[in-house]
């Protein structure tokens, strides 16, 4: 018996601390988990190969998990009165993926994210004021609820043209969109998530219709205005799907990355001091956070034809989980892969945001929010420590996402 045969990524204990399991996967780069019914790709080189081959390894319907976890009848009934799923970005292949990506790429290009830096800095500083009160000498805050959640929610609300007062609702909709993918929630929560997604769809349809009549300088108006090469606009279902993905891309990964980064800072005081001495290393640190914690642990692909790869024969219809978190700790790619190293030369090679045509559209935005957050946090604090007796360091149960529930941190303010 081995770690792979005795355990599974469906087990909460493995999800809490997956490192040993991920390294065990490296010995069998394309491992079939009989308990879960799908293959797991775990090595960096093989994953890049699969990510490049969209013909044999499709994203179409790849994240629909009904076959792995059949939904209750109430969910099916709710879905009958909702917009049906359409393929836009995450669950699409060329040539249609190319059409959609070309229509929405512009606001997320690096030059446009640079124009948002001033606004992001303002949001970050306002949020940190609520964590490290101006004039205070020491105190405590929750790095999840007080820091990691408000910053990306406020940024994406502004980009979409939504009232910041809707932050709580936006977070609830975003959570409801992604929690079912993790396949670890109860039927009751799945029903609640479906109701919230239905509510989100109805709200977003109204907002998009309002933008048709009175366009603004925001992402929703960009969706309404967008046209493909033949002059055709997005359908309503496509626009709602894209808005949902913008919420997730601009929120979930950034929230989980910020919280994980604070934990890594406190756990690695020598590395923290390197950042304090040389803030130019913060961008490498951000890539190391993404590599080590991989807020999106993995996503699926579907095999389109009988094929053989890495010595494994795969039938048509087989499902593969691309385990980004395992590839990001592949010692064949990263020296001392389990160590935080803010001087690492290839930290930016991580696949935390995927790669190729499906590289996350919000990656540039997420990285910039994280850079500005840690730059300000390190400037505003002299020391950071875990609040004694206040943390269990637990994560949300999920096979897909990795995010802390809470992280209580004590600080000494910079003089």
Please describe what this structure looks like.
With 415 residues, this protein is α+β, with helices and mostly antiparallel strands. The chain is built from 19 helices and 10 strands. The chain has helices spanning 3-6, 12-16, 19-26, 44-52, 73-79, 96-104, 110-114, 117-129, 143-148, 150-160, 167-178, 187-213, 219-225, 236-249, 252-267, 269-277, 282-293, 324-327, 363-380; strands at 30-33, 38-41, 57-58, 138-142, 299-303, 307-309, 312-314, 319-322, 381-386, 408-413. The strands form 3 sheets. It has a 5-stranded mixed sheet with strand order 1-2-8-5-3. Strands 4-10-9 form a 3-stranded antiparallel sheet. β1 and β2 form a beta hairpin. α5 (73-79) runs parallel beside α12 (187-213), α12 (187-213) packs across α14 and α17 packs across α19. It is globular. The model has no long low-confidence stretch (mean pLDDT 95).
Which labels suit this protein?
415 residues, five-stranded mixed sheet, three-stranded antiparallel sheet, 19 helices, 10% strand, globular
Briefly summarize what is shown.
By secondary structure, the protein is of the alpha+beta class.
Write the SSE topology.
Elements (H helix, E strand, L loop, with lengths): L2 H4 L5 H5 L2 H8 L3 E4 L4 E4 L2 H9 L4 E2 L14 H7 L16 H9 L5 H5 L2 H13 L8 E5 H6 L1 H11 L6 H12 L8 H27 L5 H7 L10 H14 L2 H16 L1 H9 L4 H12 L5 E5 L3 E3 L2 E3 L4 E4 L1 H4 L35 H18 E6 L21 E6 L2
Helix pairs in contact: 5-12, 8-10, 8-19, 11-12, 12-13, 12-14, 15-17, 15-19, 17-19
């Amino acid at each position: 018996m081995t770690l792979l045969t005795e355990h599974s990524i469906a087990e909460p204990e493995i999800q809490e601390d997956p490192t040993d399991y991920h390294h065990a996967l490296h010995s069998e780069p394309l491992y079939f988990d009989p308990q879960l019914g799908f293959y797991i790709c775990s090595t960096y080189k093989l994953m890049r190969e699969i990510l490049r081959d969209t013909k044999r390894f499709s994203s179409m319907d790849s994240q629909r998990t009904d076959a792995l976890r059949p939904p209750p009848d109430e969910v099916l009934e709710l879905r009958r009165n909702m917009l049906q799923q359409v393929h836009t970005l995450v669950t699409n292949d060329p040539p249609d993926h190319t059409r959609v990506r070309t229509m929405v790429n512009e606001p997320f290009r690096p030059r446009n994210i640079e124009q948002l830096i001033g606004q992001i800095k303002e949001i970050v500083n306002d949020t940190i004021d609520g964590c490290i009160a101006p004039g205070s000498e020491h105190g405590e805050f929750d790095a999840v609820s007080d820091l990691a959640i408000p910053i990306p929610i406020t940024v994406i609300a502004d980009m979409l043209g939504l009232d910041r007062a809707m932050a709580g609702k936006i977070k609830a909709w975003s959570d409801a969109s992604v929690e079912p993918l993790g396949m670890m929630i109860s039927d009751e929560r799945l029903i609640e998530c479906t109701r919230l997604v239905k509510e989100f769809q109805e709200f977003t349809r109204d907002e998009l219709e309002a933008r048709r009549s009175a366009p603004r300088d925001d992402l929703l108006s960009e969706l309404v205005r967008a046209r493909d090469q033949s002059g055709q606009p997005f359908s309503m279902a496509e626009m709602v799907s894209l808005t949902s993905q913008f919420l997730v891309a601009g929120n979930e990964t950034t929230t989980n990355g910020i919280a994980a980064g604070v934990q890594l800072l406190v756990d690695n005081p020598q590395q923290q001091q390197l950042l304090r001495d040389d803030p130019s290393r913060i961008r490498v640190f951000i890539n190391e956070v993404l590599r080590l914690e991989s807020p999106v642990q993995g996503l699926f692909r579907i095999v389109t034809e009988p094929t053989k790869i890495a010595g494994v024969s795969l039938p048509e219809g087989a499902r593969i989980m691309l385990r980004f978190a395992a590839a990001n700790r592949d010692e064949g790619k990263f020296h001392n892969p389990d160590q935080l190293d803010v001087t690492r030369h290839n930290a930016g090679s991580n696949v935390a945001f995927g790669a190729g045509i499906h590289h996350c559209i919000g990656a540039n935005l997420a990285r910039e929010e994280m850079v500005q957050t840690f730059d300000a946090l390190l400037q505003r604090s002299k020391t950071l420590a875990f609040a004694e007796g206040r943390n269990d360091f637990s994560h949300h149960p999920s096979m897909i996402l990795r995010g802390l529930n809470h992280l209580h941190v004590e600080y000494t303010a910079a003089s």
